[in-house]
Design goal:
Blueprint (H helix, E strand, L loop, with lengths): L4 E7 L1 E2 L23 E2 L5 H7 L1 H4 E7 L7 E10 L2 H8 L17 E7 L11 E4 L10 E5 L3 E4 L5 H5 L4 H11 L8 E4 L5 H12 L3 E6 L5 H11 L3 E4 L7 H5 L8 E4 L3 H9 L6 E4 L12 H5 L4 E4 L2 H7 L4 H16 L8 E5 L3 H8 L7 E5 L1
Parallel strand pairs: 2-3, 10-11, 10-13, 11-12, 13-14, 14-15, 16-17
Antiparallel strand pairs: 1-4, 5-6, 5-8, 5-17, 6-7, 7-9
């Protein structure tokens, strides 16, 4: 496919203590052009992202390499902007790719061409990345067959584009840490996040009750109604965790076996307080950027277990077990077809409007996920 060009993000290089980020993948192609612009000054990359995003990001057109025997040509269809994508650009994520690099860890594409030795994929198939760091903020890519895994193309586009990270995280946390049965209870903070919404829906499909903690906000009533429409059993404010109302709530449901923490700080400590004896808290995020503090009493007298979870590590650990990832995706797609698992509210943004999407994705209380339609 010589001559086929694709657009991608290019984030300009700047002087920082840890990392200078370029969002344009260096590949072996017949003709390869990268525009490098330097930004000087003492501001941090976070400040640049917050105040000068338009000056550090741009679109770049480049020629794609030919499709090899074991590779595939993929037209990217849609790719969300997740917090982990921004963390990666900021240099604060666990994965920091070699520079320059394409942004975006999640998305869905369609196979246009396959190499002569490709067996499992064919033109027309929908695919998503198997692992993080693939770089989905671009219109097209030539990838190794093993870099992607197929999805059915009879599910909604945004459900496919947002399937590989948050629903998989929710699925594994509800499956791998406690033996949850119908009638059991899970408590979670960040309930309005992508993971939180997936937890609500998957738990409801399994007959598991959820106590969902959200921050106070002007549209709190509408948010509560929306989460309950998804299947949330209870929706409460952060402040309620420290109040007498919790005792009244536990008269209507069991104390949680499992707590899911995506915030950290005081919120995580409060979740621990409400676990039943022998329960588990799983931390998958730290939006508050504060450490998790575990009371000694929770360890001694309640024998709670505190663990972490990162879906990327799970995928890598099970990279040789094709059935594990395929089985999870099949079950999630089945829930989608049944109407029991829907994508979070999404705002469709054209690639040329990526600056607006990045701005919106970094705002507090954002109710819709920004999805680049490519």
């Amino acid at each position: 496919m010589a001559g086929f060009t694709g657009s991608c993000f290019l984030c300009f290089k700047m002087k920082v203590s840890r990392i200078a980020w370029l969002l344009c993948k260096r590949t072996e192609v017949r003709r390869h052009t990268v525009c490098r612009t330097f930004i000087s000054g003492s501001t941090t990359l976070q400040q640049q992202l917050s105040s000068a995003r338009g000056s550090i990001c741009r679109l770049e057109s480049m020629e794609l390499p030919s499709v090899g025997a074991k590779s595939v040509l993929v037209k990217l269809l849609a790719a969300p902007i997740n917090p982990s994508d921004i963390n990666m650009i900021q240099g604060s994520y666990a994965i920091l790719p070699d520079l320059p690099a394409v942004g975006g860890n999640e998305g869905v594409g369609q196979i246009l061409e396959v190499g002569s030795q490709v067996k499992a994929l064919r033109p027309g198939d929908w695919v998503i990345p198997r692992d993080a760091g693939l770089g989905t903020w671009r219109t097209a890519a030539v990838l190794a067959e093993n870099d992607v895994i197929s999805l059915p193309n009879d599910i909604p586009l945004f459900s496919a584009a947002t399937l590989g990270v948050n629903p998989c995280t929710a699925f594994r946390m509800l499956s791998d840490f406690e033996e949850l049965k119908p009638g059991d209870t899970v408590i979670q903070n960040a309930a309005n996040s992508g993971v939180g919404q997936a937890v609500i829906q998957i738990a409801a499909a399994r007959g598991i009750q959820t106590i969902n903690v959200v921050r106070d906000r002007p549209d709190l009533t509408q948010l509560i109604d929306r989460l309950k429409a998804m299947g949330a059993s209870h929706v409460i404010k952060e402040e309620t965790l420290r109040r007498h109302e919790m005792k009244e709530l536990f008269k209507t449901c069991r104390r949680p076996k499992l707590a899911l923490n995506g915030v950290g700080g005081k919120s995580a400590t409060e979740l621990l307080r409400h676990l039943q004896v022998g329960g588990s808290m799983v931390t998958y995020g730290g939006m508050a950027k504060q450490p998790v503090t575990v009371p000694v009493s929770a360890l001694i007298f309640k024998n709670v277990t505190v663990k972490g979870f990162w879906v990327t590590q799970w995928k890598r650990t099970h990279s040789q077990d094709e059935g594990a990832l395929r089985g999870m995706l099949d079950e999630l797609c089945s829930l989608i077809r049944q109407g029991k698992l829907t994508a979070p509210a999404c705002s469709e943004v054209g690639l040329q409007d990526f600056r607006k999407a990045l701005d919106t994705a970094m705002q507090p209380f954002t109710s819709a996920k920004q999805v680049l339609v490519l």
